[in-house]
User: What shape does this take?
Amino acid sequence: MEFITTNKRRFDLIDEADEYYFAAMKANNKTTKKKLLNKAVEICEFHWDAHLQLILFEKDLEKKYKKLLKLEPEVRKDMLENEDVSFEEDMGSFYSILETRPYIRVLYSLFINAIEINRFRSAFEIGKNILALNESDNTGVRYFMYPLCVLLEETEELEKIDKFYDAGYAANALALYYHYRKLGKKTKANNVLKDAHSYEVDELCDIYVGVKPPSDAHDLLHLIFMPLMFQNEYLTDQMLERYWKY
Assistant: This one.
């Protein structure tokens, strides 16, 4: 009875805080949004999505990284102690459980932040952890893992991810292309690009030459990854044509 009563109180607090949290997500004004998020945290100190959103306001990327590193174990501890969750029993399906989603969202934010500050090894390890916890990969971590694996020469992990998932679109196909070219498997490398959409390859080229600014951490990764294509003379005719256009 005590467990049920305690959890009902917990759920009630979360529900009450949710009203302010969702209102904050709809607010266009940053000041209003922060005020609503702080109110959500005031009502429910373990409303981790509200805590996360407040941290994401931090403009200093290094400070944001430290705050996220501090938040992650707090969320994990609370989740394991107060929710019906087990790393052993629920491994691989975390995002299908509502109570574990805030933890995955914190890990994902930490993952993206690590990429933004060039902590690629840390990002790689966090990404591996997210994929192990959530095989369906609702957050799209696998799309970042392709170029990360190439940059870090994590050949085994790259092929493991590609076997389980799919290159998906041109950015990841290019990472695989580079991987196989480096292994001397030119035919296999060229086959990888056959299904890649031309406009997506063009988009990456435009980002690299500065015609189009990077829109997210995925683009930032490729700004670092694409020069490797130049250095090793792995560029395809389509890429060369696009580059020389400018």
